[in-house]
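Checklist before submission:
- one chain only
- standard amino acids only
- sequence pasted in full

Submission:
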Amino acid sequence: MRKNRKNDMYINFDKSYQGRGRRKSSTLANVIMVVILAVLLGVGAYYAVRINAGGDYRLNKDSADNNDANPNASNQAPVISKAPDDSSIKKEQVIVEVDPRTPVKARGIYVTSRAIMDKRDELIEIADTTEINAMVIDVKDDNGRITFKMDSPKAQEVGAITNTISDIEELMKLLKEKNIYPIARIVAFKDPYLAEQKHELAIKNKDGSLYRDNNGECWINPYEREVWDYLIEVSTKAAEVGFMEIQFDYIRFSTGKGMSEAYFGPLAEEKTKEDIVIEFTRYAYEKLRPLGVFVSADVYGTIISSSIDAGLVGQNYVEMSKYLDYICPMIYPSHFGDGNYGVDHPDLEPYKITRKVLTASKTKLDEIPEGQHRASVRPWLQDFTATWIKNYQVYGPLQLREQIIGVYGVGYSEWLLWNAACNYTVDGLYRD
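Returned file contents:
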């Protein structure tokens, strides 16, 4: 119930005189009484004016009660104190950041630089006729080569530019006309080309020789800041030609034989693999986000629940998610060992393994406190047959769809398809 403000604002004269004895009036007494009444009326009028003017005597609780009753009133009760001089008032500005970027719920396919030239019409038709609306296109590929001409001093210095995509402006214009969301794939630390050209940036063995993985390829050292700046330089050029998202792949250390004996330099004595990958992720996000592009990263699906795998490759699912717009776990059923997540043969049960891994993803990311930034999850799905594992099956429309349904079943709405040859199972996709 609202309080009666009349009792707060005006003196109750009846109560003020209650209990006082009265005597018969006389002339002098009448004069005195008139004077007293005049004084009291004057004081009462003074207080009434002060109160109505919002002075020192208004009640806090009364103001708060009336704010609750009046939906147009401020939610904050006025402070009851003498008004300070203008010189002592602190004026605070509240700056609300407006993100100019427009997010897209991406359902995409991986596209090599060669495929976008040789199979462009076929790939565009997939996007025209199915639910596909995004393409992840190689800009810096697995070999460390840059796929279109760009004004990158470092790439030009080492001769990394191939110009496989010879009409990048026309391509970006076409993708825009077709409402296809363009994502630039930037392979980060797997860069055999740069490592061979600049040995000082490469991972080395303890004897000073170049480290080589199981395929004989060199990797660049994630602890080298010059490597970071090169990746940002290439990413910036990709943003300038029209890519709306930069996606880092191989944003990790090699898992090849001999990595336990590799030498990364003195900084590795102070910072772990996870520390340095997190620092690079944050650095890249702070550099690229102001350009108006989204930033994403591909990570192993196994790191979601395996701290051992996370430590080996240097990928921390939660901490990286704090500095990305999208985190893209590669949850190919064939990449999980028999028995993982309680699934006997993951490749044979794509729906089940997809749901279990992404449920674990939700639980893991809930470690980030409510209100803090966290990346959206956009998983990579398998659109290939893993003939190299023991318990495999041929992947077709059913297996593809089971994975997609698994994504939606957990509450995620975006996904990407991987096929190294860019041959996609169109019959597993919904038609527009």
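Reviewer check: Confidence is low (pLDDT under 50) at residues 1-29, 45-89.
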